[in-house]
Amino acid sequence: MTGEIHDLLGVGIGPFNLGLACLAEPLGLDAVFLDARDGFAWHHGLMFDDATIQVPFLADLVTLADPTSPYSFLSYLKEIGRLYPFYIREDFQPLRAEYDAYCRWASERVGGLRWGREVVDVRREGRGDDDEAPVYRVTAITPEGTETYRTRHLVLGIGTTPWSPIDREPLDGDGAVALHASEYLHRRDELLSLGSVTVVGSGQSAAEIYHDLLSSAGADGPRIDWVTRSPRFFPMEYTKLTLEMTSPEYIDHFHALPADQRDRMLREQRSLYKGINADLVNEIHDLLYRRSVHGLPSGLLAAATTLDGAAREVRGADSPGALRLDLSCADTGRPWTHHTDGLVLATGYSPTPPRFLDGIADEIDRDERGRYRVARDHTVDRAHSTIHVQNAEEHTHGLTAPDLGMGAMRNSIILRSICGREVYPVETSIAFQQFGAPAGGVDPAPPAPAHDSPTARHQEAR
Questions:
Q1: Helix (H) or strand (E) holding 24
Q2: If pLDDT is split at 50, 70 and 90, which confidence band does 275 have?
Q3: Residue 188's CB: how many other CB atoms inside 10 A?
Q4: 242-271 exposure pattern, b = at least 16 Cβ within 10 A, e = fewer
Q5: Percent of the chain scored above 90 by pLDDT?
Q6: pLDDT value at residue 460
């Protein structure tokens, strides 16, 4: 450990903290970012050849904060000679593999990234040189030994971890395959060698995996089933007025609501960010139709169905499957069982409290349910000034938390807090619609027309 005190230390290098590193670099901040992995990798278990990200290319690491940044997606395309092919393609959404390659390109150029360093402990060291700001001592393990860093600000960008409603590990092996969707492409061939596979889940990942398995199964492949607890196989809502719910005004409105109200609204808003691309829903139906024309089985397709448990079955000559799934109908409450050889749990991800914060647990502000009490500026320390989080604030900021398109705005807010000034302008009013009741309970005065607006020019002409 040296006497050096960093201005900023980020834990985890996913897209959000990578974007923060790119935006922090030209500001002269002493910033360092640590990650246990050997290099950048983004959802390789779901890197289908034709899959795109679900946001436009403008939602890259930096553009919505600084369109002139050398770390933009367009700068990447220009450097590798693919800007014109992307232009001719006329599709705003990059391929998922393309976005991953872009992030790796940025990670190889921006300074301050240190891979192969697993953060295991954070402690408050005391006061800094100015006797006001706290200093945190961060301990990381590397293949060569232990390293210690000191910093005034922490940004936690450790992401989320795979979640499932059951323990899948005891089910995996000895003729059965049970895995989370994040592992899918790494074990796809195992699944296709089985007699039957069941996909459980309701979102885009479940739909992509089901479509891929069904397309690959052919006439001699496994039976492919899909069950979801959602009331239907619903598409993601992507209309423009709905997209205004990612606006700063809506985040302000949502953040100011009571916690119970926010939780209820998030459950009601699932189709806004956990639905399926509408084109893919239609492609799945077309695929099922083509199979039916050729007399191929369609397998089980069941919505409003909850996975309550799973167990191994004793295999025999007439055994219907290596695994027994205990299901229930959400509409009637009636339980039933389903047998399968393979199980893919496309059941999403959840934030996991990092153990390395145990040493400063009493400094973290939490709500009644033990979740981070995240301030509007994404701070979680009790003083709300020095510890920031990325993609751990869905319960306080709403559906924008995991949205790649909101990363640049969040990083602009974090950097404003760290620098004590606004270095990247943060838009505060972009929506046409109003969220919530107006202050004072009366209609707000309509804004005066801009001097160069069509209305103003017309009035001047008269």
A1: helix 15-24
A2: confident
A3: 17
A4: eeebbbbbbbebbeeeeeeebeeebeebbb
A5: 81
A6: 40
Across the chain, what does the average pLDDT equal? 91
Domain boundaries defined on the chain? 8-160+351-419, 162-236+274-349
**Tokens of residue 1, six digits:** 């450990």
The rounded Cα 106 to chain-centroid distance in angstroms is 19
The H-assigned helical ranges of 247-294 are 248-255, 259-268, 270-273, 278-293
- The reply to whether 162-236+274-349 shares the fold of 8-160+351-419 is yes
Q: How many residues does the chain have?
A: 462
Q: Are strands 154-156 and 8-11 parallel, antiparallel or unpaired?
A: parallel
Rounded to an integer, what distance in angstroms lies between the CA atom of residue 360 and that of residue 381? Answer: 9
Chain segment 396-453, per-residue pLDDT in tens: 999 889 999 999 999 999 999 999 999 999 999 999 999 998 877 777 666 555 554 4
CATH topology of domain 8-160+351-419: FAD/NAD(P)-binding domain (3.50.50)
C-alpha gyration radius of the chain:
25
Are 330 and 308 a contacting pair, CB within 8 Å? no
Tell me, what amino acid is at 55?
V
| Percent above pLDDT 70 for the chain | 93
Q: What is the 3-state secondary structure (H, E, C) of 296-361?
A: CCCCCEECCEEEEEEEECCCCCCCCCCEEEEEEECCCCCEEEEEECEEEECCCEECCCCHHHHHHH
Confirm if 236 and 273 have CB atoms less than 8 A apart.
yes
Asked if 35 contacts 13 with a C-beta cutoff of 8 angstroms, the reply is yes
Residue 64 CA to residue 76 CA, distance in Å, equals 16
pLDDT in tens, 169-225: 999 998 899 999 999 999 999 999 999 999 999 999 999 999 999 999 988 999 999
The CATH H-level superfamily of 162-236+274-349 is FAD/NAD(P)-binding domain (3.50.50.60)
pLDDT at residue 101 above 60?
Answer: yes
Q: Which helix (H) or strand (E) holds 455?
A: helix 454-461
